[in-house]
Design brief:
By secondary structure, the chain is mainly α. It is 56% helix and 0% strand.
Amino acid sequence: MMAQKTANLYARIEPDVKEEAEKILFALGVPASGAINMFYKQIILHKGLPFSVTIPDSSPDLSSMTKEDLSRELEKGYEDMKAGRVKPAKSVFAQLREEYGI
């Protein structure tokens, strides 16, 4: 008896999530079944999910910040500026206009 070459997988997924993901996969030239197969292989290799599942930190909310929190955030921005980890707003807006036709 020969081993089965494929198996069916049935999953329910939000239509907008499916559509958006399939657009990206199409652009990459990867069929959804290939992406799912890669995902399952990564689960096997990692013996778990191949990425961390966490709730990302949200951006600071000024209305709930203390003066100390605000000071700390401003200091981070200042340190980024000194270290050259910033871009001029003019170039960022130019890039957005170019990429999105704004």
